């Protein structure tokens, strides 16, 4: 699904007409999150957001998994596996599972930490603990009440913030900003400095700032003729990263978040790249949805989250015993 354009513009006629439905949606979310969650005996860190769509949660989970590993903590990721058929609990195995089975994000996350897909988050967390998890990283579960959360981090795309500030369907919010942030322990805004300065968040909670930076791979990107495609929350962020590396960006194609890479679509993308005499390039998340036969022909640009100041995060991890 693509977000409607009016979600990012100041409230107008359409969002006003949809406002009554937004109030119903917000009320339903409020009732759901008020239910008490269950404990699984280890700390649960939730990485979520307040808006529909991507904000950088997956790079955040990867960064947290790596930080916990540095602290000697064996963290497991629990995800609902959006886009996958598996109901779980099932531990993701990149050698046997595909994105159709478990979703694209869990396949990517499994390269960094043991990852479980489960439509029932509590069952998934219990399976992870039984397998030796010392902490649970709950991917995109901020509005899910199944588990008691010891640390909740709300991720915000600094470039778009909270859109028009209204709740679904009048805007992109899953719940009102003030209501959601009141339950969070930390916010993490992701984006370049100019976007960070333009983003104003209510306080508290404590705000972390981060950037998605290309991973140094030794690839000579400068001057490379590229045709880029991406099915993430904001594909333009990926295209801007490529421009920053100095590629000769001859064409781009924005896909919907998690959009299936069908044979017809892949054929069309390949034809566009050939006409432009350009190398096809995509994101890590999109690459796991490629059929094996094409993975050697489409280049991937990996990015990693760099958090400006880790001290508040480390203090929060200390507080919950990690």
TrEMBL record:
Pfam families for the chain: LpxK
Signal peptide interval: none
Binding residue positions for ATP: 51-58
Catalytic activities: a lipid A disaccharide + ATP = a lipid IVA + ADP + H(+)
Enzyme nomenclature, EC number: 2.7.1.130
Record carries keyword rRNA processing: no
InterPro entries: LpxK (IPR003758), P-loop_NTPase (IPR027417)
Origin: domain of life: Bacteria
Entry's transmembrane regions: none
UniProt entry keywords in alphabetical sequence: ATP-binding, Kinase, Lipid A biosynthesis, Lipid biosynthesis, Lipid metabolism, Nucleotide-binding, Transferase
Pathway: Glycolipid biosynthesis; lipid IV(A) biosynthesis; lipid IV(A) from (3R)-3-hydroxytetradecanoyl-[acyl-carrier-protein] and UDP-N-acetyl-alpha-D-glucosamine: step 6/6
HAMAP family: LpxK (MF_00409)
Its biological purpose: Transfers the gamma-phosphate of ATP to the 4'-position of a tetraacyldisaccharide 1-phosphate intermediate (termed DS-1-P) to form tetraacyldisaccharide 1,4'-bis-phosphate (lipid IVA).
Entry-linked NCBIfam families: lpxK
PANTHER family according to UniProt: TETRAACYLDISACCHARIDE 4'-KINASE, TETRAACYLDISACCHARIDE 4'-KINASE, MITOCHONDRIAL-RELATED
Family named by the database record: Belongs to the LpxK family.
Protein name per UniProt: Tetraacyldisaccharide 4'-kinase
Source organism of the structure: Jannaschia pagri
Record lineage: Bacteria, Pseudomonadati, Pseudomonadota, Alphaproteobacteria, Rhodobacterales
